[in-house]
């Protein structure tokens, strides 16, 4: 089974801090994704990456950046955290885009105070 | 552009009753369709998927969904609800591209 591991389940940070969310997958998937999940809004794509050192903006990239130095690891960075970035963050990996499912981590619930 | 609409942000049924969660999509070409389930404090888990072939798709935990091209729908059903089915359910569409587009989610509550 594919395993997608997010480094923290719960995280509390202060406004203005630089925040790193880490995600690791063990199935050699090319594609990795970061979503944020908010009540009533479903999952919204922040950034995705289809190869090492490659990244693409999703639907809501403002205030975020990403890093993919190794195939198995995809990091989400909040450059200067703000309270409106309090949310659940989900990482996913995808081996064969299209007819295969994405595999998700358990999520990081991030609170910005 | 693709989009997904889930009708009803909250659905409540009695234990043993039929579960019906609605999903409609917009797409100019035949899509790939997915249903995911999210239990409290967990990530998303695949329930079932439609790619090609048989339009009635069976998934885990007794769920199934039918792809109806003429109605652009992919509704999720289960004949008899169980307390353990209480969760949030997401419909998603992929156009053979590198992204999934998700619906807003439907929270299912099961009444004893």
Q: Specify the overall morphology of chain B.
A: globular
Largest interface: A-B, 26 and 24 residues
Query: What is the rounded distance between the termini of chain B?
Result: 41 Å
Model regions low in confidence, pLDDT < 50 over at least 5 residues of chain B: none
Helix segment count of chain B? Answer: 0
Specify the overall morphology of chain A: globular
Question: How would you describe what is shown here?
Answer:
The complex is a heterodimer of chains A (113) and B (112). Chain A contains no helices and 11 strands. Chain A is an all-beta fold and 113 residues long. In chain A, strands 2, 4, 5, 6, 9, 10 and 11 form a 7-stranded mixed beta sheet that branches. In chain A, strands 1-3-8-7 form a 4-stranded antiparallel beta sheet, with no helix packed on it. Chain A is globular and about 40 Å long. The mean pLDDT of chain A is 92. Chain B is mainly beta and 112 residues long. Chain B is 0% helix and 55% strand. Chain B contains no helices and 11 strands. Chain B has strands at 3-7, 10-14, 19-26, 32-38, 44-50, 56-58, 64-68, 73-78, 87-94, 101-102, 106-111. In chain B, strands 2, 4, 5, 9, 10 and 11 form a 6-stranded mixed beta sheet that branches. A 5-stranded antiparallel beta sheet of chain B has the order 1-3-8-7-6, with no helix packed on it. In chain B, a hairpin with a 5-residue loop joins strand 4 and strand 5. The model of chain B has no long low-confidence stretch (mean pLDDT 91).
